[in-house]
């Protein structure tokens, strides 16, 4: 364990669970994690893991080094304001909520004209559950190097990290790697369905589709060549791949992906406005 951190996890749902899978045992002990969640079933799950739990924040948590806010964007304002009385001026706050800007959160936590400076916005993704996540991070102006290092250390426990410069870039991260696992799962589902339609059984479809995605992404990561070059090497003139790619092109696959990512990024910007008031 590089550094034992005391942590308050506000919201104990899907993403918090994925983060905790990597953090507990690596960056903090289970008993150093306190989960705040109004849902008793959620609390019970965390209790079984050895964390402490509560339905609401309280003063006993004031000495926690880091508070991670992992509630839905629509709950962020009420939850942040409810927690604010229990934060010390040097408490590092990490928000993983999509959209809600660092400026908005810093204003909720700070005093008029004096926004909170111990704040890092992060956009992790669910492969964190198996230590294969990637997290985009951005720090507000004035954040200390120590706080940035702590945030990075936490997120490194569940995968790779990429720092970006502002909220707009973090919305782009959201559209790529935050939401991205869902795009990949959709593609995987489509490949498996296509294989079944061509006569393969469920197990064969699953094994072949997963190994294809896995092998191709590993090859792309390790190869000095671009994805376009790797794609061309699969594509024989007049062959099967060319026939398939012609359909992708005709149906404007690249444009669809582009449009989908734009929609995700636009939605992040909308959430920022919708739930900032
Ligand atoms: N699921 C994902 O892939 C990712 C989610 N996020 C962000 O993480 C946040 C949480 O998302 P999920 O974990 O998917 O949602 P979720 O619905 O699984 O978890 C949210 C949790 O917050 C709890 N909650 C509701 N009101 C609360 C309150 N007043 N105090 C404390 N806890 C409260 C709920 O009971 C629930 O357990 C969102 O803001 C989302 O944008 C970020 C990256 C990826
Ligand atoms: O769908 C969402 O809004 C969240 C943010 C990124 C992944 N899930």
UniProtKB/TrEMBL annotation:
Residues 168-271 form the Pyrroline-5-carboxylate reductase dimerisation domain. Residues 8-99 form the Pyrroline-5-carboxylate reductase catalytic N-terminal domain. Pathway: Amino-acid biosynthesis; L-proline biosynthesis; L-proline from L-glutamate 5-semialdehyde: step 1/1. InterPro entries: 6-PGluconate_DH-like_C_sf, NAD(P)-bd_dom_sf, P5C_Rdtase_cat_N, P5CR-like_CS, P5CR_dimer, Pyrroline-COOH_reductase. It is found in: Cytoplasm. The keyword Cytoplasm applies. Pfam families: F420_oxidored (PF03807), P5CR_dimer (PF14748). GO terms for molecular function: pyrroline-5-carboxylate reductase activity. GO terms for cellular component: cytoplasm. Its main location: cytoplasm. GO terms for biological process: L-proline biosynthetic process. Keywords: Amino-acid biosynthesis, Cytoplasm, NADP, Oxidoreductase, Proline biosynthesis. The keyword NADP applies. Transmembrane segments: none annotated. It catalyses: L-proline + NAD(+) = (S)-1-pyrroline-5-carboxylate + NADH + 2 H(+); L-proline + NADP(+) = (S)-1-pyrroline-5-carboxylate + NADPH + 2 H(+). It comes from the Bacteria. Gene3D superfamilies: NAD(P)-binding Rossmann-like Domain, ProC C-terminal domain-like. Its EC number is 1.5.1.2. NADP(+) binds at residues 70-73. Catalyzes the reduction of 1-pyrroline-5-carboxylate (PCA) to L-proline. Belongs to the pyrroline-5-carboxylate reductase family. HAMAP family: P5C_reductase. This is Pyrroline-5-carboxylate reductase. It comes from Paralcaligenes ureilyticus.
């Amino acid at each position: 364990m590089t550094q034992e951190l005391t942590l308050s996890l506000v919201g104990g749902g899907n993403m918090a669970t994925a983060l905790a899978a990597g953090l507990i045992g690596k960056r903090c002990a289970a008993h150093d994690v306190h989960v705040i969640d109004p849902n008793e079933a959620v609390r019970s799950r965390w209790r079984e893991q050895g964390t402490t739990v509560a339905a609401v924040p309280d003063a006993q948590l004031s000495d926690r080094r880091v508070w991670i806010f992992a509630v839905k964007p629509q709950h962020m304002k009420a939850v942040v304001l409810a927690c604010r009385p229990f934060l010390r001026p040097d408490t590092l706050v990490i928000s993983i909520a999509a959209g809600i800007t660092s400026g908005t959160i810093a204003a909720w936590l700070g005093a008029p004209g004096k926004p909170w400076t111990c704040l890092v916005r992060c956009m992790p993704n669910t492969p964190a559950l198996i230590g294969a996540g990637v997290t985009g991070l951005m720090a507000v102006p004035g954040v200390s190097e120590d706080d940035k290092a702590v945030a990075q250390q936490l997120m490194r426990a569940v995968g790779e990290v990429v720092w970006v410069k502002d909220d707009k870039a973090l919305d782009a991260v959201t559209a790529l790697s935050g939401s991205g696992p869902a795009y990949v799962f959709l593609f995987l589902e489509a490949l498996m369905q296509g294989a079944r339609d061509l006569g393969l059984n469920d197990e064969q479809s699953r094994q072949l589709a997963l190994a294809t995605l896995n092998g191709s992404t590993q090859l792309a990561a390790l190869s000095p060549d671009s994805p376009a070059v790797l794609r061309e090497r699969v594509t024989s003139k007049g062959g099967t791949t060319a026939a398939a790619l012609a359909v992708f092109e005709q149906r404007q696959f690249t444009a669809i992906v582009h449009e989908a990512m734009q929609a995700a990024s636009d939605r992040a910007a909308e959430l920022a406005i919708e739930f900032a008031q």
